[in-house]
Specification:
- Helices cover 34% and strands 15% of the residues.
- With 151 residues, it is of the alpha+beta class.
- It has a six-stranded antiparallel beta sheet, sandwiched between helices.
- Strand 4 and strand 5 (128-132) form a beta hairpin.
- The radius of gyration is 15 Å and the shape is globular.
- Keywords: Signal.
Length: 151
Amino acid sequence: MRSTKLLVAGLLTLSLAACSFDSEPGSPSPTKDSPSPTEEGPQPLSEVGSVTELRDALVEAGYPCADWTQTNDVANAAESGSCSEEDLLSTYASESDRDAQVTQERANKDMLREAGIDPGSTIVGPNWMVNLSAGTDIEGIHEVLGGTLIS
């Protein structure tokens, strides 16, 4: 858990120059060890073994995935796939691969904003990323999956 805190701190440092960084107050932290003593809440998603495991967690969080296709097209990812034309799920073999993709994702979002296009949001976990389109209940999914929200 301590290494996760250090990783999140590193990601925050990298993000200061590029994009806005949104984190909902009260949302689950990737380092949360146990549920609230008064309420059994969702536990953050830790590392996943495959992109299909990530897809299953996303579906369990309430995201529809009627048209799953595993493509493995993301350059820095070990695996990737999508449930629709508006989303992208990816897993990473190392923190450095994931961090390289986060940097690319931020640059892509900046270009879309400059073109007047809403880039949607991305949730980044220990070895995974979920890119979701604008209009998705990103806050609800973020609450269940945990991770860091990049808008």
